[in-house]
Amino acid sequence: MASSTVDDDVMLLNYNDAVIYTRDLRLVVENDWLNDSIMHFYLELLQQESSEGHDYFMDPSVVSFFMQHCNDHEDIEDFVTSAPFPKDHGRIFIAVNDKMSAAADSGASWMQHAPRGCATAQGTHWSLLLMTIGTLPSADKISVGAYHFDSHGECNLKVAVEIATKIAKYIYKSNARVISCKTPQQVNGYDCGIHVLTAARVLASLNNIDFHQQKHFHEQELHKTIAVQHARNPGPAMRQAISDTIVNMASDQEVTFKRGDAGNWIWKTNCY
């Protein structure tokens, strides 16, 4: 467990505007649900590691802003100008949360019809939406594919459809049919974010394989990584990897880190 004496508001790092505080690191090491900050940080790591210049790993807060506040032509035009969407070829990786819905404020009615164990109106479930962008060979038109990976059935399918539809319509003047992909299911109630980040890393590494033509291959690779290599639970290894990365990148000298008996990180505030 992390030290309870440290200030949770100490900023540990700012990595390309992905800001991590001690409170965020605590979520990782204490097996808690990952928040927007951790999701953004790891997706930004994947963005910088990507050898494919046409991949775009969207900041979850940017997705929420697009869905809930970009409602007219001027808003969307400004948004497109500032966001690095691939133009005619590439992939978009989106960490989906139910709070991103344009109707998130009316979540109470949504909750009445939500499958058991799914997210609340405040947003407690992550899934991955992978969108592929290409040009149809027979016409000068953008083709948009959308594939949803959810570690808890189809909890976030409705929101994923909303996001894919809006991006396809307003960014690419096209349409997209969201396809639910076979996804290893989480074994607890808090590792949905871990599954999303693991899936994003696996799928991002397959950058030379056409997803539309090789959908089953991508599903098999994801299954091999999560279900086989991690025995259906990528949580421990991924949480260790994420926390190690944060600690190694942390620049704030107010905090001292050390390994606990279980191998996880503990920390305390330095006194001067």
Automatic annotation (TrEMBL):
Domain Ubiquitin-like protease family profile: 18-203
Entry keywords, A to Z: Hydrolase, Protease, Thiol protease
PROSITE patterns per the UniProt record, alphabetical: ULP_PROTEASE (PS50600)
Protein name: Ulp1 protease family protein
Organism field: Nitzschia inconspicua
GO biological process: protein deneddylation; proteolysis
Pfam families for this protein: Peptidase_C48
InterPro entries, alphabetized: Nep1/2-like, Peptidase_C48_C
Keyword Hydrolase attached: yes
GO terms for MF: cysteine-type peptidase activity; deNEDDylase activity
